[in-house]
Amino acid sequence: MNKEIEEKIGFTLKAFPENKKRKLIEKRDETELIEDFDGELFYLITGIPELSLDEAETTKKIIEEIQKQEKINKEEIQKFIKFYCEREWIKLEEKQNYFIKKVIESIVFGFGAMDFLLKDNSIEEISVIGKGKNVFVFKKNFGWIKTNLFYLIEENIVNLANKMSRTIGRRITLQNPKLNSVLPNGERINAITEPVSLTPTITIRKFNETPFTPIELIENKTFNSKLMAFLWLALQTDTSIVIAGNTGSGKTTSMNALFSFVDKKERIIVTEETPEISLPQEHVIKLNTAENLGIEMQELIINTLRMRPDRIIVGEIREKKEAKAFIDTLLAGQGKGSYATFHALSGKEFITRMKNLGLMEMDLSSIDLVLVQKRWNSINLEKGIKREERHVIEVSEIMNKEGKAELNILFEFDFTKKKLNKKNDSIRIKNKIKQCFGFNEKELEKELKKREKFLEKMKGKNISLKEFHEKTSE
Questions:
Q1: Whether the predicted pLDDT of 80 surpasses 80
Q2: Residue 352: which residues within 8 A CB-CB, separation 6 or more?
Q3: Alpha helix (H) ranges present in 291-414?
Q4: What's the distance, CA 265 to chain centroid?
Q5: Which among 154, 176, 180 has a CA at the least distance from the CA of 165?
Q6: Was domain 1-205 assigned CATH 3.30.450.380?
Q7: Which residues contact 172 (CB under 8 A, 6 or more apart)?
Q8: Using one digit for the tens of pLDDT, what is the confidence trace for 316-329?
Q9: How far is residue 56 CA from its own chain's centroid?
Q10: When you count CB atoms within 10 A of the terminal residue's CB, does the N or C end of the chain come out lower?
Q11: Three-state secondary structure of 94-152
Q12: Domain residue ranges of the chain, discontinuous segments joined by +
């Protein structure tokens, strides 16, 4: 029965039995997060019910009528429902009409039931892992959770991927089995089908429409105010920074937030595979790779040197050519600093991996700071609670010692006490700050405390990144 319904509307929603719900964790207008009696979490779409076969057939026929029109808006949907039902002698109850209208709107103007997942800002990632399997969502503090959304027909997964990538004019096919695209709201979509995978899959990475501020990162304990005050001064002193970490640790989020400390008049060039970085400055130029045209990240990074940037951001360094091009921007002495993200879980691992990519150790010391973030599951065995955490776990400055890159660890995370502690005094960055501002040691410490106090005072103010940027630019 479910497959027959999906043939008509393109997706399957399965109602979750009420007697299997043990606990309601979170309730929104059209979704619920529940826990069953086995302790498993489920994310349920409740905005539309599981349609009957007759309701699905009616929905399909009305959509066919609508698709004959050249142009239509949401306000006209009810007119088509009424027209079709009167013609076919179908009587819909008020509730049926409401839900059928909702399903039609989601299919005609969006991506069907997937819309309910896309518009929930608490979801970070969506994963369609194949036909007949639960669609998964990744929620902060909860991790991966099954939903009650399914795709029982492989063709519907492919159709969904192609509809989502319409804006770039590409399709996923047997000849082109891999697809990367960006949705209108900035979500990043990756789709794969045969022969690369056994079944079509879709992964959607979502981004906050309103970027996090440094204050929010302090409030959620990713950073502390002492470190943030130090980075504030460092960025004003034209310090180059690499943010390293594992997948989903918040590297891009932190990069966005830290640039609220950069002067609003500066010219910033951002190079990315897909648009993720959203800065508060006005003079920002974004360059994106174009696989189909053979334009790769290395070419974009090199091109930035011809654009007279004040600062350069590389969305992510992955390969040897990109790493070398990034270091070249630093060695060229162009502008006020270069910034990038990278996959590594310590400053030491960052240096080792960059050396493995063919970079000379002495050249790595052109990078001032390496900031490392980590995402992990924190498990309390006594209470039986598993919680996902994200924190800065290490901040190090890179020192050039006789041609070798050595780390001076400034901040380090204590996993037992779950606290970021200051470890060593800065040498390199402190000297840059002193030279820039004309501070002596006492004046520098006074300024750091002043900024730390300001950041603490801003907690709970609930201001936007742009508003915060204005305040720090005063």
A1: yes
A2: none
A3: 297-304, 320-331, 347-356, 361-364
A4: 26
A5: 180
A6: yes
A7: 158, 161, 162, 165, 178, 179, 191, 192, 193, 200
A8: 999 998 999 889 88
A9: 35
A10: C
A11: HHHHHHHHHHHHHHHHCCCCHHHHHCCCCEEEEEECCCCCCCEEEECCCEEEEECEECC
A12: 1-205, 214-473
Q: Which of 135, 127, 163, 138 is nearest to 151 (CA)?
A: 135
Helix (H, G, I), strand (E, B) or coil at 388: strand
Predicted confidence (pLDDT) at residue 1 exceeds the cutoff of 90 = no
pLDDT in tens, 25-53: 999 889 999 999 888 999 999 998 888 89
User: In the structure, what pLDDT confidence band is assigned to residue 67 with cuts at 50, 70 and 90?
Assistant: confident
**Buried b / exposed e along 14-33 (16+ C-beta atoms within 10 A):** eebeeeeeeeeeeeeeebbb
3-13 burial code (b ≥16 CB/10 A, e <16): eebbbbbbbbb
Token pair for residue 116? 């309910």
Give yes or no for a contact between 14 and 6, defined as CB atoms under 8 angstroms apart: no
Give the integer Cα–Cα distance in Å for 261 and 270. Answer: 17
In the chain, what is the straight-line distance between the N-terminal and C-terminal CA atoms, in Å?
64
Locate 100 and state its tokens: 């059928």
Whole-number Cα distances in Å, 429 to 144, 232, 241, 443: 39, 12, 11, 15
Task: Tell me if the bond preceding 177 is cis, omega within 30° of 0.
Answer: no
Sign of CA dihedral 189, 195, 197, 199: positive
CATH architecture type of domain 214-473: 3-Layer(aba) Sandwich (3.40)
Which one-letter amino acid corresponds to residue 427? I
pTM score, two decimals? 0.82
What are the beta bridge partners of residue 21?
A: 36
With beta carbons less than 8 A apart as the criterion, state whether 42 and 148 touch. yes
Helix-then-strand count for the chain, H and E: 16, 20
Q: What is the spatial distance between Cα 474 and Cα 65, in angstroms, rounded to a whole number?
A: 58
